[in-house]
């Protein structure tokens, strides 16, 4: 259940609420079947096929993963040949879990480093001034109130000749009804903060939790692209994908490893991805 507040009047303590929520859920994610860390240790690659195709060969490159959570995506890029990966997250327990996972895979901090920091402070927190690839994965941007500040921070960390790659859930899905995704039910252009009070976690809806209050924001596709373009990065592509990683709508089916609309229903984009390069 959520309530909505004007962006400027977002409740005091929203950042602390969000961090407490994520901190509490880390042990649930580490121990549960959703992330299946035992399986990951055996085969450390959970990247989606469209991500690996669009990013291309990362062999010998440095990669920074903003909002990395427990590091599975970060370490997957190392598995695919990145010379050095750095993950950043504001949750200290998540960073500790990522470091432990890296150690289990035999990666020392010179190959895979993890840093605790707010994403807006990333430029001061990460060990290198810039990276060949700055990566942000699915489900990250909604936790940030200021998308322009995020874009400026991320762009500042891209090395000359490098690029930023973003994969994110499509904001159009947040305007549709939860049952079928076929009717407009919410304002696509809402800018106000959404305050949630929900127990459990996407990885285990029935997990007993105490810190259930969180605050999120919706960013339109235009807001994200415009924010990145304003930094001087060159938008190489913007792709839209008809698949999702979770049953966003109640009528979803699983086909070819992804959650999708029924085959007889008109499709809409569920995920988007973009690449923006620095000269």
From TrEMBL:
GO terms for biological process: antibiotic biosynthetic process; methylation. The keyword Methyltransferase applies. GO terms for molecular function: methyltransferase activity. Keywords: Methyltransferase, Transferase. The keyword Transferase applies. It holds the Pfam family Methyltransf_12. It comes from the Bacteria. Residues 64-164 form the Methyltransferase type domain. InterPro entries: Methyltransf_12 (IPR013217), SAM-dependent_MTases_sf (IPR029063). This is Methyltransferase type 12. It comes from Streptomyces roseochromogenus subsp. oscitans DS 12.976. The lineage of its organism: Bacteria, Bacillati, Actinomycetota, Actinomycetes, Kitasatosporales.
């Amino acid at each position: 259940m959520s309530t909505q507040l004007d962006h400027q009047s977002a409740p005091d303590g929203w950042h602390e609420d969000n961090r407490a929520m994520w901190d509490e859920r880390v042990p649930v994610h580490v121990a549960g079947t959703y992330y299946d860390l035992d399986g990951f240790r055996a085969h450390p690659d959970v990247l989606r096929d469209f991500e690996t195709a669009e990013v291309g060969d990362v062999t010998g490159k440095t990669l920074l993963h903003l909002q990395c959570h427990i590091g599975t995506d970060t370490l997957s890029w190392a598995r695919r040949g990145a010379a050095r990966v750095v993950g950043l997250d504001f949750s200290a327990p998540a960073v500790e879990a990522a470091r432990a996972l890296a150690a289990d895979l035999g990666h020392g901090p010179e190959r895979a480093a993890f840093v605790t920091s707010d994403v807006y402070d990333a430029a001061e927190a990460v060990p290198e001034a810039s990276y060949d690839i700055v990566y942000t994965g699915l489900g990250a941007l909604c936790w940030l109130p200021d998308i322009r500040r995020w874009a400026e921070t991320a762009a500042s960390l891209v090395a000359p000749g490098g690029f930023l790659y973003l994969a994110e859930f499509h904001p159009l899905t947040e305007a549709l009804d939860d049952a079928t995704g076929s009717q407009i039910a919410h304002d696509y252009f809402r800018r106000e903060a959404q305050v949630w009070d929900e127990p459990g976690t996407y990885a285990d809806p029935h997990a007993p939790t105490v810190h259930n209050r969180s605050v999120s924001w919706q960013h339109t596709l235009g807001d994200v692209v415009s924010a990145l373009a304003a930094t001087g990065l060159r938008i190489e592509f913007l792709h839209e994908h008809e698949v999702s990683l979770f049953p966003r709508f109640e009528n979803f089916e699983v086909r070819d490893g992804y959650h999708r609309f029924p085959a007889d229903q008109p499709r809409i984009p569920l995920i988007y991805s973009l690449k923006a390069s620095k000269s």
